[in-house]
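Need tokens for this chain, all 549 residues.
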Amino acid sequence: MIRYKSDSACADARFYYHDFLDQRTQKDIPQKDLEHIAACPHCLREVQRLKTLLARAENPLAPEPDRKNTAVIAVLGLHLHYIDTPVKCSTVKNFLPSLAIQALKIRIITPITAHINNCPACSEDLSSIISLGLDSNRLHRLAQLLAHKPSYSPKECSNARVHIPAAAAMHFDKVDSPALNHLSTCPNCRQLVYEQRQAIRADLLSKKVLQKASCENISTADIFDCCVPFAIAPPEHPGQKQSLNSHLRACPACLARIQQLHKTIYAIVERPDSEIVTRYTLREDTPEYMEIKSPPSYEDSKINVEVLRPETAPAAAPSARMPEEKAAKRTFTRFLTPAVAAAVILIVFALFFGTPAKAVELSDIYEAVAKITNVCITRFLPAEPQPRYQLWVSRRAGLKLVQSLCETELSDFPNEIRKTRVSDSDAVKVTSLSPGAAAAGLKSLDGTFGLVPFESLELAPENATWSPVDGKGLRTVVPGTRVYELTWPIEVQDSFRKWRVYVDRSTNLPLRAEQYLKMYFEPEYEIESVDVISYPTDSEIQAVIGDAF
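Here are the structure tokens for all 549 residues:
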């Protein structure tokens, strides 16, 4: 196979091999790379090799994938995003619950499964999860727990700790959901729950309490709900199982099972990265700092799985130059961070295992948008491969960060300052905001940021039409969403506007919005812009600001 040089067109094009396999995603490939792949014998051979790898999956790619195939393809595509990238345990951890589902089983070697094959700690974590025999709903909740990055204040801990005695004794009907979530995700608080249950069990053993009821019918799933009461829906809330909870709190044997499961689950949650870092490639580059693992299964696939020595492992292969467009996309929107990977996996769970939802009204979206704390909006325009800009907003911190190809600007309204850095420069210009400007900027954060077409629902025209869209005919698929369109005429311009929105089934928040325009005499709408929307945590926004300045 060819060795890629820093100026090789093949080196640039290889990042788009997976997109090239599907005509629906070929439009996302920069034109020069698309033309190169189509005309280059080497790249076509590599694409065919990747296609052969994918064909080994249980469910092959299909033009009209059903619900299951869509979920499998989404997970597999996410796995393949880590080709040519060092993979650590913290990345793999987010994939473990989905790998425990037989229906989503991936039967080819991927960058994620290759790490598990070479990392005893990750392999043991996956085996532990599989051995629990959890259903898809609980695996989904486990995925949410693994994806959650706690950041709590002493006040939040203090408020939650008053509920520890009730939670430890399985009196869940006396604990609200926010407190249960905190006690599940805060390492210090959940340790206190563990210690309190240990004390309850010790007291029962000292009194030689005997139970008449049999424990045989109590499943691991029931124990899991008591051990991990995180992100649990009201109908499944452990507080609804009073007779079961009465048994659990008075049975030393069941309390021992709960404590053992607690240690198993939270050991996985808290485990740091091991010393194993792997890198999966489709080429023969083998730098000196890598130790090659080439079992027969890898030889058959003509791939390399390399174990990197952690003290020398780089962030990316030193011989590989990422194409400018792809590099901009990866760093600009932070698609490959573990947090983003976790978010996509959760969407796949919602797609594959979600239940039908009632129709979403436009007012539901406005109501959901009003409650958000943080948002990131990436704006794309037609025929432009890179985003026009990216907007990050933290209502709680009073921050607004705008990143474009030309400059990055941070407005810190509470501190009345603005920082600006021109692209390709390390110089940061700091200016003061007047109290009036800072107050106006802070007030603007209460708006909708363009997430919806009108600043308030009352401003929508009376003749506007809101209707659901059959997703089967759409070129873009956003898992876990329902699609709607709002159309209205603009009489003064003799034109019509259309806003197509992909709404998260569980939160009613928009994840993608497309704006269209057509003149009255034109048969079709023309797309004007596309917004890709996410809702980052406080720590993720602070990380982006830290990277920018």
